[in-house]
Prior knowledge:
single chain; 139 residues; mainly alpha; 77% helix; globular
Amino acid sequence: MSSLGTLSHSYSEMARLAETLTDAVATLFRAHEEGMCEEDDRRAALRLVPLVRALRNQLHGGEPDTDADESMLPPQYVARIREARRGDLAYLGQDLDELASLLDRWEGKLSDGAIGTLRLVTRTASDQAASLYRRLRRH
Length: 139
């Protein structure tokens, strides 16, 4: 694949991830604000669990999780999070574990830590997609 084709593929992959994260997180934030737990909210939470676990595994290694398909996460996304949180990766690992557990047993409420972690993973995905788009436009 040409460098332009590779870049286009990377952008497409990252844009899909950013959209998936943004849609699910927006649903969860709405549910949190309204204090409700509907089936759509539960599905959104469960859609994020394998992504959160895959991110945790890629950042920290460890036992592979059967639900965590690590190919879902582009390497440049994981590298961008690693760089942004390089001073506190151990804490981020704990935050991701707690977030996965909270999402897995979704009850309609998010902790402050979960909100911060969801904002980090969503913002990073959007930023990475925007960066790839700008590179693609320059070609």
